[in-house]
Amino acid sequence: MEKNESIFGRRTFIDYIIGFVVSAWAFLTAYVTLAYLWPSKKSIGAGGKSVTIPLSDVPEGKARKIRYEGKPAIIIRTSEGVFALSAVCTHLGCLVNWHEGDQLIECPCHAAKFDIRGNVIGGPAPKPLQSYRAEIKGDIIKIG
User: How far is Cα 119 from Cα 109, in angstroms, rounded to an integer?
Assistant: First the structure.
Protein backbone atom coordinates (compact mmCIF):
# COMPACT_ATOMS: atom_id res chain seq x y z
CA MET A 1 0.00 0.00 0.00
CA GLU A 2 2.86 2.41 0.64
CA LYS A 3 3.99 2.26 -3.03
CA ASN A 4 0.63 3.65 -4.23
CA GLU A 5 0.69 6.49 -1.69
CA SER A 6 3.76 8.12 -3.27
CA ILE A 7 3.26 11.80 -4.20
CA PHE A 8 5.10 11.50 -7.52
CA GLY A 9 4.48 8.01 -8.83
CA ARG A 10 5.12 6.43 -12.18
CA ARG A 11 1.63 7.24 -13.49
CA THR A 12 1.96 10.89 -12.54
CA PHE A 13 5.34 11.04 -14.29
CA ILE A 14 3.88 9.50 -17.46
CA ASP A 15 0.94 11.95 -17.30
CA TYR A 16 3.40 14.87 -17.17
CA ILE A 17 5.40 13.50 -20.12
CA ILE A 18 2.24 13.03 -22.21
CA GLY A 19 1.07 16.51 -21.30
CA PHE A 20 4.43 18.00 -22.29
CA VAL A 21 4.51 16.17 -25.65
CA VAL A 22 0.92 17.18 -26.51
CA SER A 23 1.61 20.82 -25.53
CA ALA A 24 4.83 20.93 -27.58
CA TRP A 25 3.05 19.42 -30.60
CA ALA A 26 0.20 21.98 -30.34
CA PHE A 27 2.67 24.89 -30.01
CA LEU A 28 4.75 23.78 -33.02
CA THR A 29 1.64 23.20 -35.15
CA ALA A 30 0.34 26.70 -34.32
CA TYR A 31 3.77 28.26 -35.00
CA VAL A 32 4.19 26.57 -38.40
CA THR A 33 0.64 27.48 -39.44
CA LEU A 34 1.08 31.15 -38.50
CA ALA A 35 4.51 31.33 -40.18
CA TYR A 36 2.94 29.92 -43.36
CA LEU A 37 0.05 32.39 -43.36
CA TRP A 38 2.09 35.46 -42.37
CA PRO A 39 5.73 35.07 -43.49
CA SER A 40 8.25 37.35 -41.81
CA LYS A 41 9.80 40.42 -43.43
CA LYS A 42 13.10 38.56 -43.48
CA SER A 43 11.73 35.77 -45.68
CA ILE A 44 10.16 38.09 -48.30
CA GLY A 45 12.40 41.16 -48.04
CA ALA A 46 11.86 44.69 -46.73
CA GLY A 47 10.62 46.27 -49.98
CA GLY A 48 10.47 49.88 -51.10
CA LYS A 49 8.83 52.25 -53.61
CA SER A 50 10.59 50.55 -56.50
CA VAL A 51 11.75 46.96 -56.36
CA THR A 52 13.94 45.15 -58.87
CA ILE A 53 14.57 41.44 -58.83
CA PRO A 54 16.56 39.29 -61.24
CA LEU A 55 14.45 37.68 -63.95
CA SER A 56 16.04 34.34 -63.10
CA ASP A 57 14.49 34.51 -59.60
CA VAL A 58 11.01 34.10 -61.11
CA PRO A 59 11.07 31.40 -63.82
CA GLU A 60 8.17 31.34 -66.28
CA GLY A 61 5.08 29.78 -64.67
CA LYS A 62 6.35 30.48 -61.16
CA ALA A 63 5.72 33.17 -58.56
CA ARG A 64 7.66 34.85 -55.80
CA LYS A 65 6.57 36.84 -52.81
CA ILE A 66 8.28 40.13 -52.11
CA ARG A 67 7.59 43.20 -50.03
CA TYR A 68 6.55 46.26 -52.03
CA GLU A 69 5.96 49.61 -50.29
CA GLY A 70 6.09 47.79 -46.99
CA LYS A 71 3.33 45.34 -47.90
CA PRO A 72 3.47 41.73 -49.11
CA ALA A 73 3.22 41.36 -52.88
CA ILE A 74 3.31 38.42 -55.25
CA ILE A 75 5.15 38.49 -58.58
CA ILE A 76 3.89 36.02 -61.19
CA ARG A 77 5.66 35.35 -64.48
CA THR A 78 3.76 33.65 -67.28
CA SER A 79 4.09 33.44 -71.05
CA GLU A 80 1.91 36.61 -71.15
CA GLY A 81 4.43 38.59 -69.09
CA VAL A 82 4.97 39.51 -65.48
CA PHE A 83 2.24 40.50 -63.02
CA ALA A 84 2.64 42.15 -59.62
CA LEU A 85 -0.26 42.00 -57.19
CA SER A 86 -0.89 42.55 -53.52
CA ALA A 87 -0.44 39.23 -51.71
CA VAL A 88 -3.07 40.17 -49.12
CA CYS A 89 -6.48 38.59 -49.69
CA THR A 90 -9.29 41.15 -49.78
CA HIS A 91 -11.49 38.90 -47.66
CA LEU A 92 -9.73 38.61 -44.28
CA GLY A 93 -6.13 39.59 -45.04
CA CYS A 94 -4.41 36.21 -45.31
CA LEU A 95 -1.50 35.90 -47.73
CA VAL A 96 -2.41 34.32 -51.06
CA ASN A 97 -0.44 31.66 -52.93
CA TRP A 98 0.16 30.97 -56.62
CA HIS A 99 -1.01 27.59 -57.94
CA GLU A 100 0.98 26.92 -61.06
CA GLY A 101 -1.03 23.90 -62.22
CA ASP A 102 -4.37 25.72 -62.07
CA GLN A 103 -2.86 29.07 -63.15
CA LEU A 104 -4.64 30.91 -60.35
CA ILE A 105 -4.01 32.61 -57.04
CA GLU A 106 -5.73 31.12 -54.02
CA CYS A 107 -6.15 32.22 -50.43
CA PRO A 108 -5.37 29.37 -48.03
CA CYS A 109 -7.80 30.66 -45.38
CA HIS A 110 -11.19 30.54 -47.15
CA ALA A 111 -10.31 29.45 -50.70
CA ALA A 112 -10.91 32.77 -52.45
CA LYS A 113 -9.57 32.48 -56.01
CA PHE A 114 -8.09 35.17 -58.26
CA ASP A 115 -6.82 35.17 -61.86
CA ILE A 116 -3.33 36.41 -62.80
CA ARG A 117 -4.65 39.97 -63.04
CA GLY A 118 -6.08 39.79 -59.51
CA ASN A 119 -9.75 39.55 -60.51
CA VAL A 120 -11.97 37.47 -58.21
CA ILE A 121 -12.99 34.20 -59.87
CA GLY A 122 -14.37 32.43 -56.80
CA GLY A 123 -14.76 32.40 -53.07
CA PRO A 124 -15.68 35.01 -50.50
CA ALA A 125 -13.28 37.80 -51.57
CA PRO A 126 -15.31 41.01 -52.07
CA LYS A 127 -12.93 42.76 -54.47
CA PRO A 128 -9.87 42.11 -56.67
CA LEU A 129 -6.28 42.13 -55.47
CA GLN A 130 -4.50 45.45 -55.89
CA SER A 131 -2.20 45.36 -58.90
CA TYR A 132 1.12 47.14 -59.34
CA ARG A 133 3.01 48.15 -62.45
CA ALA A 134 5.52 45.47 -63.41
CA GLU A 135 7.80 45.19 -66.40
CA ILE A 136 10.74 43.18 -67.63
CA LYS A 137 13.82 45.22 -68.58
CA GLY A 138 16.57 42.99 -69.88
CA ASP A 139 17.18 40.42 -67.20
CA ILE A 140 15.49 42.44 -64.44
CA ILE A 141 11.87 42.60 -63.26
CA LYS A 142 11.00 46.12 -62.12
CA ILE A 143 8.01 46.70 -59.86
CA GLY A 144 6.69 50.25 -59.43
Answer: 18
